[in-house]
């Protein structure tokens, strides 16, 4: 290959792809183009360690500048891609220069979904710089309203409580993290936040945000100093759409993470792939890591289908929730020590399809790892055994 392999998007997925290409022996020109001035970094610490002041950018970066130089990865920051021409196998940067490519990975991620009004007391959390801006505003006694009861909003709420803020969480739906968690764990999450003094309000709608208060549609006025909005992510599909690539809620790919244009792949939060006949995107650390690696292999011509199981985790105070696989209607429940819970999702043939765990600290992680092995084993399971906390998952795995 005379021309370069180019990665557009220097976040987690793009950074992991670049590092993987070098690990796998690619020695040609490799260019990594990012919107942010920073080196590739992981986002989960932003709402926890970075916001608490216990972690910094170096601690969540995938590499440092010395490593990039040693690996001969060209990092272009502050000069974003403005145009993509798939037929000519080239792209244009903001400064006007054209770069030809032999293969291209679009890992353009997304941006925080914003409210129509923009004002000084409304903050978002998607990037490292946004985390620093929010951290400087979270002082003891600060009255914070969090709009959105998903994981970003709840992690910010937990961190803010730990910093001494007065916190109210507003959720439009009937339960917390309702899109991804089963009702029993949504309820446990609600109880946990309320026990830490968070005023959680469900089924509420926002009327407007003022300089010193939030107004609800039902007429309530909530005095506050600061509003954090966590209502999801807007995938950055504009570049792909303008270039004529197939898009839906993300950049659409086939089983090999190939887009509808030759030699162009997509990975990470922006990638929309098919699973069980439905297109979906996954905005998780696990997906960015897995797809970044996978896209790199297929850029090198490996032709390996992407079959990694979905999964995520979230830390809330001193509790953790973790999932793997897919949720099905058939559910078996197992009690864990200290009030924890493990849910197993089975198909009609009693094969494990997914699992969801809730427990203190990171204690559920080992169970979820065993569940992943049970899913991959494709062995019919006994529901009574799964429900029995006296019967170890290791024992069930051995058959």
UniProtKB/TrEMBL annotation:
GO terms for cellular component: cytoplasm. Pfam families: Pyr_redox_2, Reductase_C. The keyword Flavoprotein applies. Residues 5-292 form the FAD/NAD(P)-binding domain. Residues 312-396 form the Reductase C-terminal domain. Its cofactor is FAD. The keyword ATP-binding does not apply. GO terms for molecular function: oxidoreductase activity, acting on NAD(P)H. InterPro entries: FAD-oxidoreductase/Apoptosis, FAD/NAD-bd_sf, FAD/NAD-binding_dom, FAD/NAD-linked_Rdtase_dimer_sf, Reductase_C. Keywords: FAD, Flavoprotein, Oxidoreductase. This is Pyridine nucleotide-disulfide oxidoreductase. It comes from Pseudomonas trivialis.
């Amino acid at each position: 290959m005379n021309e370069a392999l180019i990665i557009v998007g220097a976040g987690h997925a793009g950074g992991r792809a670049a590092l993987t290409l070098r690990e796998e022996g690619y020695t040609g020109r490799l260019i990594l183009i990012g919107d942010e001035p920073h080196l590739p970094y992981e986002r989960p610490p932003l709402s926890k360690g970075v916001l608490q002041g216990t972690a910094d950018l170096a601690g969540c970066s995938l590499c440092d500048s010395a490593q990039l130089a040693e690996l001969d990865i060209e990092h272009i920051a502050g000069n974003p891609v403005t145009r993509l021409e798939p037929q000519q196998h080239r792209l244009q940067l903001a400064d006007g220069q054209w770069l030809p490519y032999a293969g291209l990975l679009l890992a353009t991620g997304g941006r925080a979904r914003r409210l129509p009004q923009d004002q000084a007391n409304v903050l978002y959390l998607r990037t490292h710089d946004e985390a620093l801006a929010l951290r400087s505003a979270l002082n003891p006694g600060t009255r914070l309203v969090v709009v959105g009861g998903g994981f970003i909003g709840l992690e910010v709420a937990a961190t803010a409580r730990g910093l001494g803020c007065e916190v109210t969480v507003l959720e439009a739906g009937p339960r917390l993290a309702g899109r991804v968690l089963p009702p029993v764990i949504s309820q446990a999450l609600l109880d946990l936040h309320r026990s830490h003094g968070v005023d959680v309000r469900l089924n509420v709608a926002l009327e407007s945000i003022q300089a010193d208060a939030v107004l609800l549609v039902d007429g309530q006025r909530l005095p506050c100093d600061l509003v954090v909005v966590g209502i999801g992510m807007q995938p950055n599909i504009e570049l792909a759409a303008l270039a004529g690539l197939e898009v839906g809620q993300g950049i659409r790919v086939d089983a090999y993470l190939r887009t509808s244009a030759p030699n162009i792949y997509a990975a990470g939060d922006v990638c929309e792939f098919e699973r069980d006949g439905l297109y979906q995107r996954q905005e998780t650390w696990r997906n960015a890591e897995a797809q970044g690696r996978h896209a790199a292999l297929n850029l090198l011509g490996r032709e390996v289908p992407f079959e990694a199981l979905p999964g995520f985790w979230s830390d809330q105070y001193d509790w953790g929730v973790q999932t793997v696989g897919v949720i099905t209607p058939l559910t078996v429940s197992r009690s864990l020590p200290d009030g924890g819970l493990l849910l197993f999702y089975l198909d009609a043939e009693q094969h494990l399809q997914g699992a969801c765990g809730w427990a203190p600290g990171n204690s559920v992680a080992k169970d979820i790892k065993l569940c992943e092995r049970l899913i991959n084993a494709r062995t019919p399971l006994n529901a009574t055994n799964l429900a029995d906390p006296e019967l170890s998952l290791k024992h069930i795995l051995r058959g």
